[in-house]
TrEMBL record:
InterPro entries: Aminotrans_3, Class-III_PLP-dep_AT, PyrdxlP-dep_Trfase, PyrdxlP-dep_Trfase_major, PyrdxlP-dep_Trfase_small. This is Acetylornithine/acetyl-lysine aminotransferase. It comes from Methylomusa anaerophila. Its cofactor is pyridoxal 5'-phosphate. Gene3D superfamilies: Aspartate Aminotransferase, domain 1, Type I PLP-dependent aspartate aminotransferase-like (Major domain). Its EC number is 2.6.1.-. It comes from the Bacteria. Keywords: Aminotransferase, Pyridoxal phosphate, Transferase. One of its GO terms (molecular function) is identical protein binding.
């Protein structure tokens, strides 16, 4: 058996990582500028995060969300401390999965179907996330995509032209990652907030890449002082363990309308607590700022 062709392999064979360094099978050392596609904000194998994972792995790796788990409750409470703007979180396993949850809850809450996103934006490769993502190369082979998605130019004029009475959500990376580290102006994001509030549209900030410390705040929306209705996080949220979170204000899924087997699993929650411990103990945000 062999790997699919989705990620062609370089000749480099990495067997160990520590901090900002990688080590290949011959012992040669490299500086890691890939950062695990954005997951290694705090470096590889930080001892606090490793210890948290090891301790939890010896107790319980996985269980079901129908039963209370103290580690899960502790993690959600810790997230609430850094995100007092939101009152509900749905824990996931990836950024794309989190975007899918945001799309579903936006349509559910508003009773509308249309989703607006922006050129150069990247939100994932599952069918809903891909429908919000720009780029013909990765979109065209999978047509037809999910209906009622429109990719706008990053101008208020384009947004106003495409908004209708059936618009459920506007999805945007406040700082685009894969699109080229494009920082949207405050005035533009503030106008989106005003339009969404006026028209009852969900404003969704995708902070899978720009979140968790990269701006000197935990999230870019805090830097801009513009709070979305829905916040999407992933990548480094659990230090490299597959995880994500959809944070909402005043809206939630009814029982049994969404879920996932591995969502909020104990190992990821322990790693997430470890990540937050590092941010505090090492004064990460102040250093980044």
């Amino acid at each position: 058996m062999h790997f699919t062709n989705t990620n062609p392999k370089l000749e480099l064979c990495v067997i160990r990582a520590e901090g900002s360094l990688l080590f290949d099978d011959s012992g040669k050392k490299y500086i890691d500028f890939i950062c695990g596609r954005g997951t290694a904000n705090l470096g590889h194998c930080h001892p606090i995060i490793v210890k948290a994972i090891q301790q939890q792995a010896s107790r319980m790796i996985h269980f079901t969300n129908e039963i209370r788990m103290p580690i899960q409750e502790e993690y959600v409470n810790r997230l609430g401390e850094i995100l007092p703007e939101f009152d509900t979180v749905f824990l996931t396993n990836s950024g794309a999965e989190t975007i899918e949850a945001a799309i579903k809850i936006s349509r559910l809450h508003t009773g509308r179907t249309e989703i607006l996103s922006f050129s150069n934006g990247f939100h994932g490769r599952s069918m809903g996330a891909l429908s919000a993502t720009d780029g013909q190369k990765i979109r065209a082979p999978f047509y037809p995509l999910v209906p009622d998605f429109t990719i706008c130019e990053p101008t208020i004029e384009s947004v106003q032209e495409n908004i209708s009475s059936n618009t459920a959500a506007i999805i945007i990376e406040p700082i685009q990652g894969a699109g080229g580290v494009i920082i949207f102006p405050y005035k533009f994001l503030k106008s989106l907030r005003d339009i969404a509030s006026k028209k009852g549209i969900m404003l969704v900030f995708d902070e899978c890449q720009c979140g968790f410390g990269r701006t000197g705040n935990y999230f870019a929306f805090q830097k801009f002082e513009i709070t979305p209705d829905i916040l999407v996080a992933s990548k480094t949220i659990c230090g490299g363990i597959p995880a994500g979170g959809m944070f909402t204000r005043l809206i939630d899924f009814p029982e049994d309308l969404h879920g996932g087997t591995f969502c909020g699993n104990p190992l990821a929650c322990a790693a997430g607590i470890g990540v937050l411990d590092v941010f505090i103990s090492e004064n990460i945000l102040t250093k980044v700022a």
